[in-house]
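Entry 14. Structure prediction run on the chain below.
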Amino acid sequence: MYAQHLSQSGKMFVTLAGAMSTAELGLSLAEMIRMDKVHGICCTGANLEEDVYNLVAHDHYERVPHYRHLSPEQELDLLHRHLNRVTDTCIPEEEAMRRIEHVVMEYWYEADSTGRRYFPHEFLYQVLRDSKLKQFYQIDPKDSWMVAAAEKNLPVFVPGWEDSTLGNMYAAQILKGSVKNVTTIRSGVEYMTELAKWYLELTAKHSLGFFQIGGGIAGDFPICVVPMLHQDLRIEGIPLWSYFCQISDSTTSYGSYSGAVPNEKITWGKLGPNTPRFIIESDATIVAPLIFAYVLGW
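Output returned:
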């Protein structure tokens, strides 16, 4: 039902939590972006960078299908081999993380020395557009959602970017003194102000639905833009999200990663009583590609 509703509705905003980029959601999400089915994305810093890691280091990843049964000693062996495990997939530090670090660091230095400031995704957009990593591509770039997003200049919002590998690397450069101004990378509060401006401009002409994959900050941050505009800025007539769908494999509760059920969002002024609402309790790595495939007519 949701996939059918989605295919017939207006604009769509997607949020990415968990490790969807390492799960290679780009295989379907990139085409959604190219076909103008996705009009904005909010994601964690991990999802932002891990799509690019996969782009340049895919062949160096190691799969661990028996990951549930690894002993602490086996986990330590992965650490010594510089393999960072995400569920059943190990990301190689040198070929993925350090490769990106060495390139994007030069963009940080250049911006810092010239007094320019950019958001985290804008730095990666610059790297991708300048083809600085093209020699290292190990998958077809059409399967990278970040490549598609950079080509479309898609609005992307990354709250809590500091909680990512590149965020840690940036903090290290500040501590070393290699980057002088911590504000060279624009902040999460600035992401919210940009989201508010974008939301107002887009919803003046179009309806905008909310498709949340997973829980946490990737979904909690952007959905709050509506009550912020209405309750804090006192702007009348702010359009609510035109629909809401969430995929999560966790039943909602106080301690659940999945966050609030859709009805609860009505009390916060994020959704209305007549807003179409859907919650799918399943594995997003299976469900999200199926929904995207339906929308794309695959």
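The chain is about 45% helix and 15% strand.
Filed with the rest of this week's runs.
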